[in-house]
Amino acid sequence: MERADAAGRGAGVRLIDVGPGRARVTLTVAEQHVNGHGICHGGYLFLLADAAMAYASNSHGVSAVASGADIAFLRPARLGDELVAEAGERALVGRSGLYDVTVRAGGEVVAEFRGRTRTVPGLAGPPTV
């Protein structure tokens, strides 16, 4: 899954750790991530959190995709910040999953993300991380 994630790789997302129902990814805020206010664009924060959820939700060996998500931006991330997104599974019932992701920079919370997933058995490609 990591090798096939062209979007994450292109944005600079790196997988740090993954296990059953959990994952940790990182991204260093570079020039291409900064918006007109000089802070990290919220779309990249969302992408990072979504990537963490993707790895966590696919860690059970069945393909899962996002079915929805919300994010709260709590403080800005700046050029050069090392962002770490940590995802944890909160519930897995039938084909539906619920995940919380915290994004931090230097130990301080930047954003909180809550995402929902749906397993899709038979989705093209192996769900291996």
From TrEMBL:
Swiss-Prot/TrEMBL keywords: Hydrolase
Annotated ranges, domain Thioesterase: 37-110
Gene name, Swiss-Prot/TrEMBL: paaI
SUPFAM superfamilies: Thioesterase/thiol ester dehydrase-isomerase (SSF54637)
The protein's name: Hydroxyphenylacetyl-CoA thioesterase PaaI
Pfam families linked: 4HBT
Species of the source: Pseudonocardia acidicola
InterPro entries: Acyl-CoA_thioesterase_PaaI, HotDog_dom_sf, PaaD, PAAI_dom, Thioestr_dom
